[in-house]
Design a protein that fits this description.
Radius of gyration: 19 Å
Helix content: 40-55%
Strand content: under 5%
Order of helices and strands: HHH
Largest sheet: none
């Protein structure tokens, strides 16, 4: 994968143009330890995800945003699988 990915931003539909956005994935995850390991890690992931979602929601065309959501869900479909209950025999 390329170090830099360039995509189209949304057209200006408001009084001002949609600004370009740069998302830098360059921070190292801090070492989590102690009793709050899971909660601290989840808070970090949730915060990063919200920042990315906010930036993309403001900058991408709606069609690109919808296609991105579909692509991400398709890649994670195994996490969404729920086993069907076994048939009850009487």
């Amino acid at each position: 994968m390329a170090d830099t990915v360039h995509v189209h931003r949304a057209d200006a539909t408001r009084t001002e143009p949609v600004p370009a956005v740069t998302i830098a994935v360059d921070l190292t995850q801090p070492a989590h330890s102690g009793d709050n390991f899971a909660a601290d890690a989840q808070a970090l992931f949730d915060g990063d995800a919200k920042k990315i979602a906010d930036a993309l929601h403001e900058a991408l065309p709606g069609g690109t945003l919808k296609a991105l959501m579909a692509e991400l869900l398709t890649r994670q479909v195994c996490l969404l699988r729920v086993p069907l209950p076994q048939a009850v025999t009487r």
